[in-house]
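Deliverable D4.2, example record:
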Amino acid sequence: MKSKILNKGPERTIALVFEKGDDVVPILEQFAKQHTLSASRFSAIGALRAAVLGYFDWERKDYDRITVNEQVEVLSLNGDITLDGDQPKVHAHVVLGRRDGSTIGGHVLQATVQPTLEVLLIESPGYLRKTCNRETGLALIDIDA
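Output generated by the structure prediction step:
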């Protein structure tokens, strides 16, 4: 993955270009850690060779896993990077386009790039914290933290 700062403030904008074989979520989290990002939002387009999406099952308080083992277009990928404790945490949703024009979408659990993924990341001047929500069991943005 390559990166370049496009704008330094007040909201820093960074272009990230992922390459074939890159695993999106851990690379984004590592980038956030290296650059001390505490509150960012991003959007992306590109393509994947495989993905694991999630659909949150309210009763089980866990994700049903949806495996995508085919080349797909990333029609829309949106998410945020916030702090969960002192660690950056990616939360992203995606809509993927299949060869026949049908789509599939969900929470991004894993995504492997092929051939590229172009991400525009915008760092907020303040920071957001995630805290564990007792009702859902999920780490959710806590604007009062």
